[in-house]
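User: Some background: our group keeps a shared notebook of sequences we're curious about, and every so often someone picks one and asks for a predicted structure to add to the entry. Today it's my turn. The entry only has the sequence so far, pasted here. Could you supply the structure so I can complete it?
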Amino acid sequence: MKVSILAYLPGVEELVAKIAWASISGLPPPEISVGEDDVARLFRLARTMKLSSVLDFPFYIFSISGVSRVFTHQWVRYRIAAHIQQSMRWVKIDTGFDPEDPWFIVPPSIVKQGADAVVMYVKGVIEAGRRYLELVDERVPTEDARFVLPHAVKTHISTVMNAEELLHVIEQRTCFDAQWEIRAVAYVLLAGLYALSPRIFRNAGPYCVWEGVCRGRGRGRCLNEAKSLTRKALEAGERARKMLEESGYNRSVVLDLTDLFGFKAEPELKATVGEMLGLDKPVNLDYPAILEIKSLSEVLDT
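Assistant: Of course. Here's the predicted structure to add to the notebook entry:
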């Protein structure tokens, strides 16, 4: 999984502070002067007093790749946003797979069950892929043949959201009630957003962390782990911000956060699964978690 932040407004916190403070001033935003304390105070008030109009102004455009259709079905439920998703007719489908980069997601819970469970799962997904291609060969329209495909196929989706909706997403999906894949995305996204807009996202995280109220089914039992992951996301965001500042915001920043928010399978298990599938290589059963922050010029020049 990779979260790639593609476009954002540099200096958006200062800009929004000017706009907001101008609403209780005799001066229009271009003539307002704001300092660091004014900016920080504004976003503290915006969060505690739920000043949604303030948080509606900042927006971020990003793509999320290497995720399953299970993830995207959940993601598009957030409607104060716009989404463009890769058509399922264009996802990679094969009768085999590259052991280093499978065309489908293998959930960590299945990996943890051991080699037999993984092999059974992999064979099932590949069989579905085979049936899909056979139907296409029989001239069944791809929009109908795809009905046989599993939700495990890797896809990508691009989204634009404002800060208020992103805070809402992070509050809900960093909670341990959230499904594991969307939770991983939420923590990686938090790191990237904090790198770009630290005053806005300083207090982001699950409700139990920033609000002190558990709204999930854990009844507070996961509070310490939630606090730890939230802290690590903000620390990762701090590292990314320093890298951006050093580059003058002109070069991409990439952080591998797999150890924090992804999953790594044991090498022995990867080798065993490869042998059981008749492959000469271990099978990559990891779920990576990568943060990428790109400059708009780099995106457009690609």
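Suggested note for the entry: Residues 223-246 form the longest helix (24 residues). The radius of gyration is 22 Å.
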